[in-house]
Predict the 3D structure of the following.
Amino acid sequence: MNTDSEQYKKYAAKRAKKSPLALDCLRAFLVGGAICTGAEALHTLYENQGMSEENSAALVSVTLIFLTALLTGLGIFDRIAKFAGAGTLVPITGFANAVTAPAIDTKGEGFVMGVGTKIFSIAGPVILYGTAAGALYGVIYWISITVF
């Protein structure tokens, strides 16, 4: 079957399952909101135990990373993500999953050639381009406040 890219796009579009956009958005909103609400509840709990604002915020981040890594390892986070879509991409949980999932998938190849080489296969570009974009925006901001 010889087809050009336009014909293939039309063919794929006809056969692709249509996503219920409103329902997907609602699920993402509810699950992402639940994650953030849970984080706020943890923050309040830690502060009520006598922690400072700064230490409480740090411990919330560590707790969310730990829980996401644990749920990813148990296969639960993937089911939540399949249901909620982008709602699980709340920055810290999405990043923890992006680091943990490749490590788990490649553990059979060993710690060096498996986990060590694949652990940042998804998160690495995010770190690289996020840092580069931050530096570029910082330079633009510095120029804008210096010149104007």
Remarks:
- The two ends are 60 Å apart (CA to CA).
